[in-house]
Amino acid sequence: MTASIRIKDLPDSERPRERLVEKGADALKNSELIAILLRTGLKGVSAIQVAEQLLQKFGTLNNLSRAGLPDLQQIKGVGRDKAIALKSAFTLARRMAAELREEGPTLDNPDIIADLLREENRAYEVEHFQVLLLNTRRKLIRVDQVSQGTLDTILVHPREVFKSAVAASASAIVLVHNHPSGDPTPSDADIKVTRDLIRAGQVLKIEVLDHVILGRRSKERSRDYVSLRELGHFA
């Protein structure tokens, strides 16, 4: 009969609790952190292997965090108690993120907006259109990825932009997209999309505060972004 593989039976180098104490939580992989929540595996399978199966099934931590208890229990080795532990941990993480957003900066100027999304957009090789959903205090509710296009164009429909804003009861939004070429100068299409979305927002009573285009600094450009509001396209 195959014995159960427990975390404490593994070598020290493979024991996530000991690694966390020695190296800190940031040094652990996602599977190791999940394994700590699971505590034990089952016969022939370690908690880390169960954690890896969870990540493989759900693909991302976001998907895993939104999975229901029955979905989690479909993974062999995840019973009711382990599923509850995972759900509790992810729910606490979401609540903490909500608290941090409330404590975060007011997103009412393009400098802060660019700082928020600069690193995420730096690696994109095609244009990505994002929408910052804001509450009445201009604090971030969340960032939604709306669409992505080619190297130099992107298609955006007002329905896609405002669907999540309405669902989240957002008071205002900020439009953000990147220019992979590095030149953040708005195209005619960028200006037209911005004006279309401003009009749609007026109908829905959701204010479009700005449209920030992210690029890269150069000898000619001291800033790596432009604000269409600052350029006068919101007049």
Would you give an account of this structure?
The protein has helices at residues 16-23, 30-38, 47-58, 61-66, 69-72, 80-103, 110-122, 158-167, 188-204; strands at residues 4-6, 40-43, 128-134, 140-148, 172-178, 207-214, 225-227. The termini are far apart. The chain is built from nine helices and seven strands; from the N terminus they run E-H-H-E-H-H-H-H-H-E-E-H-E-H-E-E. It has a five-stranded mixed β-sheet, sandwiched between helices. It is an alpha+beta fold and 235 residues long. Helix 8 runs parallel beside helix 9 (188-204). The protein has two domains: 4-103, Orthogonal Bundle (DNA polymerase, domain 1), CATH 1.10.150; 110-227, 3-Layer(aba) Sandwich (Cytidine Deaminase, domain 2), CATH 3.40.140.10.
What is the CATH topology assignment of the largest domain? Cytidine Deaminase, domain 2
Annotated CATH homologous superfamily of the largest domain: Cytidine Deaminase, domain 2
CATH architect. name of the largest domain: 3-Layer(aba) Sandwich
Q: Largest sheet, order of strands side by side? A: 4-3-5-6-7
Low-confidence stretches: none
Structural class: alpha+beta
CATH top level of the largest domain is Alpha Beta
Radius of gyration: 22 Å
Short overview:
This protein has 235 residues and is an alpha+beta fold.
Secondary structure blueprint with pairings:
Layout: E1 4-6, H1 16-23, H2 30-38, E2 40-43, H3 47-58, H4 61-66, H5 69-72, H6 80-103, H7 110-122, E3 128-134, E4 140-148, H8 158-167, E5 172-178, H9 188-204, E6 207-214, E7 225-227
Parallel strand pairs: 5-6
Antiparallel strand pairs: 1-2, 3-4, 3-5, 6-7
Helix pairs in contact: 2-3, 8-9
